[in-house]
């Protein structure tokens, strides 16, 4: 096992990785920008290294500074968290070239899944169900027309280098295709420096359901069930649940079996999440994320497992030590992402948190790097806390979340706490019957 791990991240996820390391007897090295010198992840780590100025480009994305920090502190491995360098294949390669372990998948698998066309190609060959669409990149407008005529409108043009909704354009009929084609390619070029695009049938009222997997370096692959992430606004997730309110145990098992067999054939290792759209009782793969995800705690709560410890053990070469049959799904978990934003306009609201009080009690977990007197810097992601509850059933989990939200205090800045309370109070949310479009309308209704 590793003696020391460098955590190449900040905020709640750096703390999350630190906690797993500490419980495993592994020392930790925090890295931080000058804006984060007094941050909680720096305070708790065994050692810390300043890696640059506030701008993430010069600090948390500064591979040379991070690798130097790992070398001078004698770290054995690097955990990238999520965001920043977590899905950068070049960084994973450089970590390994420095004789360190990258706590994540191989650079080749990161690269493959970063190319959405290559990812779909791989899943198609491995019999994972996909949205109907172009067999690969679209070479011309004529080809786009031919594919659209075959799969029927509405269609969606997506950037190969995309993800997260950027460079995505709907064409509802043949006369919208040329415009969608042009705009998608232009956006893809400017956002990713790559104008390759592909086409899919546009699903108009899907749910977003993703499957968590772990693979060790001995050929064992298991899944930990699904997360329903349908509550999003502008491609930012707000609430996530495990399991999905619409999925049966049989659906889960069938999908899990397909996916674990596919990833075993691919030789995938460490943690991964496959994203699906679910509509009319059918799953369609869209993308794979090759990192630990923000919403991983809901899976941990229902499965009773520590995904970060598992990632570390896998990177150290240990076998999983259990099989699919040992994984049980108990009760229901919900996560609310509390951000430093105005709850109605979503304008960023950094600044000093005068008072912070975290809720507690049975089945309540808070992953946060906040403390009373902390100043949320304006330079980074606005996530300040993940409030997670676990209860025997979905209605009980909602009741517990309402109670926990009412206890939580983050004073001095605006946060999305009131929006979460309104969502939890809403009968449609409580019914579990909604699509990816529900939250957008809910927020618009509150804005009046
Ligand atoms: C889609 C889709 C409908 N049909 N693909 C948005 C982000 C990217 N990860 C995939 N996205 C979508 N792909 C087809 N064929 C609708 C979306 C989508 C979406 C997906 C998940 C969660 C929220 C969303 C909000 C708008 C659009």
Automatic annotation (TrEMBL):
Subunit structure: Acetyl-CoA carboxylase is a heterohexamer of biotin carboxyl carrier protein, biotin carboxylase and the two subunits of carboxyl transferase in a 2:2 complex.
Domain of life per record: Bacteria
Record field: transmembrane: none
Protein name as catalogued: Biotin carboxylase
Catalytic reactions on record: N(6)-biotinyl-L-lysyl-[protein] + hydrogencarbonate + ATP = N(6)-carboxybiotinyl-L-lysyl-[protein] + ADP + phosphate + H(+)
EC number(s) recorded for this UniProt protein: 6.3.4.14
Biotin carboxylation domain ranges (all copies): 1-444
Keyword Lipid biosynthesis listed: yes
Gene: accC
NCBIfam families linked to this entry: accC, PRK08591.1
Job of this protein: This protein is a component of the acetyl coenzyme A carboxylase complex; first, biotin carboxylase catalyzes the carboxylation of the carrier protein and then the transcarboxylase transfers the carboxyl group to form malonyl-CoA.
Family matches, as PANTHER family: BIOTIN CARBOXYLASE, CHLOROPLASTIC, PYRUVATE CARBOXYLASE SUBUNIT A
Domain ATP-grasp: from-to ranges: 120-316
SMART domains, per the entry: Biotin_carb_C
Lineage: Bacteria, Pseudomonadati, Pseudomonadota, Alphaproteobacteria, Acetobacterales
Pathway(s) per entry: Lipid metabolism; malonyl-CoA biosynthesis; malonyl-CoA from acetyl-CoA: step 1/1
GO terms for MF: ATP binding; biotin carboxylase activity; metal ion binding
